[in-house]
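A quick aside before the break. I want you to see a complete sequence-to-structure record at least once, exactly as it would be stored in a machine-readable document. Don't worry about memorizing anything.
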Amino acid sequence: MEGYLPIVVAQDERAGLGYEQTAFGWSPGMGPVSLAIDSRSDEGTILATVDPPVRTPPEAIALRLRHPRGDSIRSVRVDGRPSTEFTADTVTLRGLTARAAIEVRYRP
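That is the input. The structure line, written in tokens, reads:
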């Protein structure tokens, strides 16, 4: 998908074990990008921090956060504000030009 920067993270399959995962990368033509995940899936929440590429920002970032039990996303907040840009396992972040804090809540 042109203009989209896909980021895919899945939690360890060991039930009940939350952990943090951080990814750093370089997106060709866009610049550096980083992602930090704090998985609290046993509480029905995953927290993420995204530092988007700023040299040539993508139109959108697709952040796929699959819950280990297969639960669907119920709600999303980006920098404390509700967002409706999500599907069962993917959050779409549009127009990011600076660090964003994302809170994802799941339904059982």
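Two observations worth writing down. Confidence is low (pLDDT under 50) at residues 8-22. Residues 65 and 89 are 5 Å apart (CA to CA). We'll return to this after the break.
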